[in-house]
Design goal:
This protein has one domain: Peptide methionine sulfoxide reductase (Metal Binding Protein, Guanine Nucleotide Exchange Factor, Chain A), CATH 2.170.150. Helix content is about 10%, strand content about 30%.
C-alpha cells in the first residue's frame, strides 16, 4: 500500500513498485481474490476501510454486513468515494466498483443487499486497508 494517503502513482512502473503482486493484480488488472480468503471477510472492528492503492477513504465499518458471498460486503458508500462502470467480462453483465481517487478495481456492486439501500458492494479484501476509529 502506498505510504502517502491519497497519492496516486503516475505510471504503471510506480504502481508495480508501490503494490504487492496480488494488490497489483486486483487493483490494476481487475482481478479477484478467492472467496473466503481475504483478511476482511470476517473483520468486525469499527473504523474506515480505505483503498489499498492510494489510502482514500471508501467504506465505513457501520455499513459492513455478512452476506455469505466470501468477500467483504457493504450496503452503502458515499457517491464521491467510488465510481462504477459496466463490466461484461467472463460472459456476465455486472457493475464494477472503482476507487474514485486512483481508479483501482475494488469489486462489484449488486442489487441484492439489505435495507436501506438494497445494494451489496462485494469488495476484494486485498483492495482494502483499514483505519481504526
Amino acid at each position: 500500500m502506498s505510504n502517502e494517503t491519497n497519492r496516486v502513482p503516475a505510471s504503471d512502473e510506480e504502481w508495480r513498485e508501490e503494490l504487492s503482486d496480488e494488490e497489483y493484480r486486483v487493483l490494476r488488472e481487475a482481478g479477484t481474490e478467492p472467496p473466503f480468503s481475504g483478511e476482511f471477510v470476517e473483520h468486525t472492528d469499527e473504523g474506515t476501510y480505505v483503498c489499498a492503492g492510494c489510502g482514500a477513504e471508501l467504506f465505513d465499518s457501520e455499513t459492513k454486513f455478512e452476506s455469505g458471498c466470501g468477500w467483504p460486503s457493504f450496503y452503502d458508500v458515499d457517491d464521491d468515494r467510488v465510481e462504477t462502470r459496466t463490466d461484461t467480462s467472463h460472459g456476465m453483465r455486472r457493475t464494477e466498483v472503482l476507487c474514485a481517487n486512483c481508479g483501482g478495481h475494488l469489486g462489484h456492486v449488486f442489487e441484492d443487499g439489505p435495507d436501506p439501500t438494497g445494494k451489496r458492494y462485494c469488495i476484494n479484501s486485498v483492495a482494502l486497508g483499514f483505519d481504526e476509529s
